[in-house]
């Protein structure tokens, strides 16, 4: 799983909005909940059940997706 920092860019370094999808599951997301000394916060992502993106801690087990360049 790719670790994304700050949720500003895709894995290739382009703006997330350029992927055609950057809708978060709630208006307060991404929130990087729990970030602080000794805790990196929420650097991984998933698709929420409502179809929006969500950030979560990378040590949590969740279904995930990968970003890949389309060939053709």
Automatic annotation (TrEMBL):
Extent of Polar residues compositional bias: 9-31
Residue ranges of the region described as Disordered: 1-46
Chain segments annotated as transmembrane: none
Name the UniProt record assigns to this protein: C-type lectin domain-containing protein
């Amino acid at each position: 799983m790719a670790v994304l920092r700050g949720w500003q860019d895709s894995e290739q370094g382009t703006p997330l909005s350029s992927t055609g999808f950057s809708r978060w599951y709630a208006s307060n997301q991404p929130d990087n909940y729990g970030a602080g000394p000794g805790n990196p916060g929420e650097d991984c992502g998933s698709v929420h059940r409502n179809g929006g993106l969500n950030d979560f801690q990378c040590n949590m087990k969740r279904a995930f997706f990968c970003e890949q360049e389309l060939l053709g």
